From TrEMBL:
<feature type="domain" description="CzcB-like C-terminal circularly permuted SH3-like">
    <location>
        <begin position="379"/>
        <end position="438"/>
    </location>
</feature>
<dbReference type="Pfam" id="PF19335">
    <property type="entry name" value="HMBD"/>
</dbReference>
<feature type="transmembrane region" description="Helical">
    <location>
        <begin position="34"/>
        <end position="56"/>
    </location>
</feature>
<comment type="similarity">
    <text>Belongs to the membrane fusion protein (MFP) (TC 8.A.1) family.</text>
</comment>
<dbReference type="InterPro" id="IPR051909">
    <property type="entry name" value="MFP_Cation_Efflux"/>
</dbReference>
<dbReference type="GO" id="GO:0015679">
    <property type="term" value="P:plasma membrane copper ion transport"/>
</dbReference>
<protein>
    <submittedName>
        <fullName>Efflux RND transporter periplasmic adaptor subunit</fullName>
    </submittedName>
</protein>
<dbReference type="GO" id="GO:0016020">
    <property type="term" value="C:membrane"/>
</dbReference>
<dbReference type="Pfam" id="PF25919">
    <property type="entry name" value="BSH_CusB"/>
</dbReference>
<dbReference type="GO" id="GO:0060003">
    <property type="term" value="P:copper ion export"/>
</dbReference>
<dbReference type="GO" id="GO:0030288">
    <property type="term" value="C:outer membrane-bounded periplasmic space"/>
</dbReference>
<keyword id="KW-0472">Membrane</keyword>
<feature type="domain" description="CusB-like barrel-sandwich hybrid">
    <location>
        <begin position="164"/>
        <end position="292"/>
    </location>
</feature>
<dbReference type="InterPro" id="IPR006143">
    <property type="entry name" value="RND_pump_MFP"/>
</dbReference>
<keyword id="KW-1133">Transmembrane helix</keyword>
<feature type="domain" description="CusB-like beta-barrel">
    <location>
        <begin position="296"/>
        <end position="372"/>
    </location>
</feature>
<keyword id="KW-0813">Transport</keyword>
């Protein structure tokens, strides 16, 4: 068998020529067909599910809008939290606010003002950062202030109990019995003795008129009435010159004129001023001594002009001296001065206190508490107000985590609250804690914006410090 015959044999040449060749599928072909159809069926199911989900989402869109309308309140600090009823945010405890007509996004967009505090600007803080730094907010309230007003006060002499002692004749001081201030005197105590030729001449004239009167009485004639009247006029002159009754009695008894006169105290009290020395020549207009009776004293309190309307005449006042702690003394307001001091911007409120024990001394300082009359006022927590030395301001908590600096004018304090006269309105939300962190970030952002810094400048984590790009700058 040659080569061609052998190949023909292997190719089936030896088979029956009338029988066609066999083409059987390879092993595993049926399994592969089954897997192919299974994948095709899965793709059809997946396509059907996708189309169904899309159709269902389109059908549920009106229902979603209806659900959003039911959410009427939201948290300005966490806008993602909404509710259909008023209350507090469970995340930060802030009071929920009504959703504005434009929606929460519109409220967030409207809270991008820069504020009115020089050197500060509005800063944005993420909710996570708000929780981390412990920001706490409070709502500006309008409520009656407590009537109690605290003031600084001091003790001074009662002007109605001040006495100025002077002579009515001129002369020279011979003896000075009261030679230092602070000495206590009683009625009748000798103060000084004076040598006065004027007094001697007046007494001599009185004695002459007495002699003429007595001689007329012994020998009556038509001029007796004239001499009696002249004697009475001379005696009245001595009284007007300040000659005391005991000196007049001595003069009537001895009939001897004297150029010396002892001046005695007409009042009781303490010498505050001494304007005379021994041997000095004094006239009728020379102030000798000023004596004050401290049995009753005045207390003058500094009332700030912001509290003018809270203190009235007749209000109960309690004074506690710093030197006498735990010993309050009570009085009532007698006068509120109509004049404001241009230096301190205060006026004086005055009341009197009994001081028979002498423990209150002029010049003593202390605290005055007045049960004044409070009215309705806007108040915020005292810690919410930042005092920079030049301005007082707060940070308003806006929607979407924006904090806006706002200038305020403050009034009186009421415990841990402080009155705000201008700058905020009732219902505004202010930062009540961690203000210094927000203040620092606001200053830094304002400084970077002022220097034209790039928006990629570093900032504290969680705080947005990006400034809007300047016109014409590409980013």
């Amino acid at each position: 068998m040659n080569h061609h015959e052998l190949r023909s044999f292997h190719d089936g040449g030896g088979a029956d020529p009338g029988r066609p060749a066999s083409h059987e599928p390879p092993p595993g072909a049926d399994l592969m067909n089954l897997v192919r159809w299974a994948l095709f069926a899965g793709l059809l199911v997946l396509a059907a599910v996708s189309i169904g989900s899309y159709v269902m989402s389109r059908r549920e869109a009106p229902g979603s809008a209806h659900t959003q309308k039911r959410a009427r309140y939201y948290c300005p600090m966490h806008p993602s939290y909404t509710s259909d009823r008023p209350g507090e945010c469970p995340i930060c405890g802030m009071t929920l606010e009504p959703i504005p007509s434009g929606g929460i996004a519109a409220a967030s967009a409207g809270a991008t003002g820069t504020g009115d505090v020089p050197g500060l600007t509005t800063v944005h803080i993420t909710p996570e950062r708000v929780q981390l730094i412990g920001v706490r907010t409070a709502v500006v309230e309008k409520r009656p202030l407590a009537g109690r007003v605290e003031m600084a006060g001091f003790v001074t002499a009662d002007e109605a109990r001040l006495k100025r002692i002077q002579l009515r004749v001129a002369g020279w001081v011979q003896d000075l019995y009261l030679n230092q201030t602070g000495q206590a005197v009683a009625v009748g105590d000798p103060l000084l003795s004076i040598y006065s030729p004027e007094l001697y001449q007046s007494e001599q004239e009185y004695l002459i008129e007495i002699g003429a009167r007595d001689s007329t009485t012994a020998a009556p004639h038509d001029g007796g009435g004239h001499e009696a009247g002249a004697a009475s006029s001379a005696r009245t002159r001595l009284i007007l010159l300040g000659v005391p009754p005991e000196e007049l009695k001595r003069l009537d008894r001895t009939q001897v004129a004297s150029a010396h006169l002892t001046l005695r105290s007409p009042v009781v009290g303490t010498v505050l001023e001494r304007g005379v020395t021994q041997g000095q020549y004094v006239a009728a207009d020379t102030p000798l001594f000023t004596v004050a009776d401290f049995a009753r004293v005045w207390v003058l309190a500094d009332l700030y002009e912001l509290d003018f309307g809270r203190v009235r005449v007749g209000d109960r006042a309690i004074f506690t001296a710093d030197a006498l702690p735990g010993q309050p003394r009570e009085g009532s307001i007698e006068l509120v001065s109509p004049v404001v001091s241009t230096g301190t911007r205060t006026l004086k409120a005055r009341f009197s206190l009994d001081n028979h024990d002498g423990r209150l001394r002029p010049g003593m300082f202390g605290r005055v508490a007045v049960a004044g009359r409070g009215g309705q006022a806007l108040v915020v927590p005292d810690e919410a107000v930042i005092h920079s030395g030049e301005h007082d301001y707060v940070f308003l908590a806006r929607a979407g985590g924006h904090f806006e600096p706002r200038l305020v004018w403050t009034g009186s304090r009421d415990g841990d609250r402080i009155q705000v006269l201008k700058g905020v309105a009732a219902g505004d939300t202010v930062v009540a804690s961690a203000s210094f962190l927000i203040d620092s970030e606001s200053r830094l952002k304002a400084a970077i914006a002022g220097l034209g810094g790039a928006s990629g400048a570093g900032s504290m984590p969680g705080m947005d410090m990006s400034a809007p790009p300047a016109p014409g700058h590409a980013h």
